[in-house]
Amino acid sequence: MRMTIDINCDLGESTNPEHWESDALLMPYISSCNIACGGHAGNEASVRASVRNAYSHNLSIGAHPSYPDKENFGRRSIPIDDDSLRQTISEQITLVLRECESQQTKLSHVKPHGALYNDAAKDLSLALLVAEEVAKISPELKLMGLAESEMYEAAKKAGLEFIHEGFMDRNYQADKTLVPRTENNALHESLEDSLNQALSFALGSPIQTPDNVELQIIIDSICLHGDNPNALSMAKQLYQRLEEHDFKVRAPI
């Protein structure tokens, strides 16, 4: 029996229709997508097109909510009170949910974006806020987040199934958090390094930090960044590498 691994990609992060079609080119090589829903990027039209394309490629569809900060693409922590954050998270997820329902397909999971993702990975109270809003919309939704982080603990407390995520192109710190994007070594220097890290995740093998610390991180899903200029080439090569090791790319059941 073949092993399986989920490949997820953040999509719909533009209001330019040409970018929606570029996103669609990635879809044969992934199994899950996370659709931007207005916080950091996207609008009703991009959500509609992204859901349509994802449905046609039989992908597991997720919402990708963010701090409401399009100016900084959701990549900076912003001052926001809990009630306002709960409201925007709910509105963003609901935008994707309603579009899924209108196209007679299913919203399967929620993955926070950018600074919200990173903050929630370290802050249990914030992670709980996110998880509680997801559970209010539907306890059947899964929460995707940084593997073995506070988001996992929050998901358990909220009664949600958790998808442990690993990043193929990002370096990790010794505490299993990501090297901040503000640092020079946040990203792998080569495609080969990214492919090797993805394969290690899939096989359950250790990865190494830039300081040569070995980390064992068990993941359910590997993130491929759709906004990378070489995303399509990366997707094809990752898919091929996994096929060569007898993996089937498939969303978590």
From TrEMBL:
InterPro entries (UniProt xref): Glyco_hydro/deAcase_b/a-brl (IPR011330), LamB/YcsF/PxpA-like (IPR005501)
- GO BP: any one term: carbohydrate metabolic process
Q: Which Gene3D superfamilies match?
A: Glycoside hydrolase/deacetylase
| CDD domains, A to Z | LamB_YcsF_like_1
Q: What name goes with this protein?
A: LamB/YcsF family protein
**Record organism:** Kangiella sediminilitoris
Organism lineage: Bacteria, Pseudomonadati, Pseudomonadota, Gammaproteobacteria, Kangiellales
